[in-house]
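User: My advisor, Dr. K., asked me to get a structural model of this assembly before our group meeting. I'm new to this, so sorry if the format is off. These are the inputs:
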Amino acid sequence: MNAQPSTAPEPVPPYVRLQAVSKKFGDFLAVDAVSLEIRRGEIFCLLGGSGSGKTTLLRLLAGFETPSAGRIYIDGEDMSAVPPYERPVNMMFQSYALFPHMTVERNVAFGVEQEGLGRLEVRRRVEQILEIVQMSPYVGRKPHQLSGGQRQRVALARALAKRPKLLLLDEPLAALDRKLRERTQFELLNIQERLGVTFIVVTHDQGEAMTLATRMGVMDRGRIAQVGTPAQIYESPVNRFVADFIGSVNLMEGRVAARCDRDLTIRCEPFGCTVRAARCVECATGDTVWAAIRPEKIVLASEEMPDEALGDNRVRGKVREVAYMGDVSICLVEIDSGKTVRVTLPNRAGLAAQRDLRHAPVTLSWDAASPVILTR
Amino acid sequence: MRRTGLFSRTTLVLGLAFLYVPIVSMIVYSFNNSRLVTVWDAAHSPTLKWYGVLFSDGEVLDAAWLSLRVAICAATVSTVLGTLAGTALARFGLFRGRALLVGMTTAPIVMPEVISGLSLLLLFVALEQAIGWPRGMGALTITLAHISFCMAYVTVVVQSRLAGFDESLEEAAQDLGARPAKVFWRITLPLILPAVLAGWLLAFTLSWDDLVISQFVAGPGSSTLPMVIFSKVRLGVSPDVNALATLMVSVVASGVVVATVWMRHRQRRRERDAQLAAAANL
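Assistant: The format is fine. Below is the predicted structure of the whole assembly, which you can bring to the meeting.
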């Protein structure tokens, strides 16, 4: 996004680097030896459930917590001894933390004033940033006179007014209703692109992370489970936690039955089916693995197959439930072994086609490229 | 439904009567012409006679002036100290000696006044013998004694206000480049100002009407107003005390009324603003 004028072939050094950073609160290990590199101009999303340590990681970067172990570098500088008020970082708080006794203008000016700029320069900067977030008509209002969406913009403006190179956003959209959230997501992307600021966004909402992130890190119990682009994480999760956390997935436990160089055959005994996957994974014949198949990658055919037609990547079952979601329908199919498989169908046809499906005998099949084989 | 209504109304009337009949009767009797406090002289009442007597009584005026000075000094100093202590207790986490500080700042609230007064007297005497300060008992020792117990109340008020205070406001200010001292002056103090003012008023009233501790640490010629009233009453209740007490009650009551009206006005304005903002959101 941010064009780097580097002609040298060697990669640009990371803008933010975390080196085995841990944070303990008493006996509780909130962040466990996290190492992470974030490039300039990126939108990096930290995604995780509550208690996964994502907010603690953000607070470590802002300087509100000091790491129990490890080091944090921002722009090549060690941040260990730098207090929050001297870091080249600004944060947008989940609660927005607008100063209730100050007007919008004073709130936004607060940070700029600390830099010892002249009055005119402060004014100019405040006007400019309020223009960007479209809050200029509200300069004289106090925070309690603003709606939720307006407060969010003021908080963003206040954090951006100091022109930080790195902006930390803690659940920036959590307090907004759904419609507003979608609109604001795109505005946030717009502003980020325009100002070229590096964003680190903490969120528990995977949809938000997918939309915003250029790269994301999935956190689980204080550790980074996987780092990658949204597509990488969705399409090739590294373990069961990530596969299950991002989107929904059918996880089938099985044993490796045969293995050619680009082909694995897995016998899933509990599911009564054989999965053939065009993947190479580090595993040996006989190992326990999990085949992860996304619900939208399963093809549902509404005729019953005779036994001899069943084979690899093909199972027979009966539709138990159909949940109509508007754009898609989610079908829960009970396959012959008694296990339930989740299938998502796009609603191309009208209502009538979905109705008949309940209790209908069906055959499920998938492409050999679809299953992801997980060893952990 | 009706019976509950009757019951609660009766309790309300009885409760209010219990609280205010003594005060009202005192106010009424302050306009009594009779020399005897308990006899209503219907022929010549109401009269402002006792108010005149009061304002020509040098002893009472001196005592009132002393009480006022002591109360203002004690309230101001204890507000500063109490705000600092409250901030330390609410913000600095579990530092070493926190439990000790909590105990020491709140002890004067639960300590019997007689014991506080006695121990302060002993302290002042010992100090004078050791370092020659404070020289003799008087306004200074009364003020110091008042500070010591007023501070406890201010600390509690400020600390409870800070406990319900969004800490991310302070973090945001730091994040925006303000050093801790600046954060306190620009963000924390303006936001806890109502509690600080309430603490000051509380300290002022406590100091203004303290009798027991003042008795211990006051010297000859430095009598506060409560001490004068008490000594007058011991010689037999004279009606000018009623007048004095009526004046004190009216000052306090008008203060309370003004504060309530102002708070209600602010509350209304806030609600209206919030409604407007919500409407603008649609």
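One thing worth pointing out at the meeting: Chain B has eleven helices and no strands.

User: Perfect, thanks a lot.
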